[in-house]
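Exercise (ungraded).
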Amino acid sequence: MSHIGLTALTALAAVDWSSWGTWHWIAVATLLALALWQTVPNGRSPGLLRRATVMVAGVSGLLLLWLALPGITASTVQAAFAGFATLTIFAAVATISARSPVYSAIWFALALLGTAGLFLLQGSQFLGVATVAVYAGAIVVTFLFVLMLAQPEGHAFYDRISWGSTPGFVGAVTAVFFAVIVAIAVTTPDADAMTARAADAAELQEDVSRSFPPATVRAQRYLSTPAGVELAVSLAVPPQDYPEFREAQESLEKELLASQQTLRPDWNIQRVRLVAEDVRAVNHAAGLGAQLFSRHLIAVQAAGALLMAALVGAVAIASRSGSLD
Amino acid sequence: MNEISLLQNYLLIGAVLFALGLTGFLVRRNLIVMFLCAEMMLQGVSLSLIAWGRYHGDWGGQMLVVFIITVAACEAGIALALVLMLCRDAGSLDITIWQRVREEGSAAFVDREIPEEVVVQEHWPTLTPAGIQPQVDPEDQWYRSHV
């Protein structure tokens, strides 16, 4: 516990309090926490004042949030992201504020659809589909089944009330938590270093494209190995369909090793590795499967054992006829 | 920078989802809704993982999300079996019933006021009567009084 407090204090100490952006984030967190506090079930009937507070605080908080987000250059991606993100957040708020657990589950399914859209936008097609099929299709339906079994009379009194005065407390705690997360995630990661790294990558791209035809290179990345930096160049075509693969790799390696002494002594490139599958490749599912069943094979086996154990455990728990005592 | 701003956007949405799930888990009292909120926290983490994986051009993030989905399925199966058993034992999904497993010496939470239910006049769809009037048992409830 003290460790968490220490981490939070360190993060708060690293925040630049004189900057305008910090107060912007604090305003966002405060407004959203206020709206959330008034939305969650706390026993009072939603009067006009509460609704107005929720509307004003929530809408202004979300607007400030969108204003603070860095823009994406591709406008279609920006529009799709804004749509999916708004859908996800709205559905998530509705999930935790709906009085009836049935409505909660249905709103959660909608939040999952928004998340699947965000997954697709990042190019992870398989996970987007899996989220819809497994999460929204199977898990949420199981939740609904159990809800209908356990609480067939709809919502109960404890769905309209929380733990006493806890909503206010939890709202404050979550606001602080959110502010710390944002401080860590958005401000603290060194944006300058990231920009410099991207500039390095663009520079290296020119070297790579001198050795390879530009259409065949899809992406490249650095891997830090104990021996030094390893450059991995992803190809759009499989290596077996690319006859000059070996020669191009050798020439690129030679050229990079020669040029880094003069241009970039800090890079220390040891090896150039050509890979056919990349996260952004067209044959995305094939690459994912190749990684899953080669590098993560033991984890797949462990997951299978876990599923089996969960199946047996669920049957064992559910078929117990006696009471707990 | 397109890639960096995409990453920051996704990290932010992931943080928001995680915070919302955490709030719901702490505030709500229905066992099943609490588990829904735990799943929502997992979704927030998945968003961040996928964004980092895309940023680094690495499969690791997506691999972790595959296993998150697996573990979430296991967790849902076990948790729902447990919830069903607890509900059968206590007759309610209210988490405050299980206060008797709290630490010795700490005071019990008691509801100070239980809110009145707002009675809404339901308008159920009706059909034009046709044929013979069936004998309806008035004790038998045909529909939910509320959802």
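Further reading is listed at the end of the chapter. For now, observe: The radius of gyration of chain B is 23 Å. The longest helix of chain B spans residues 60-90.
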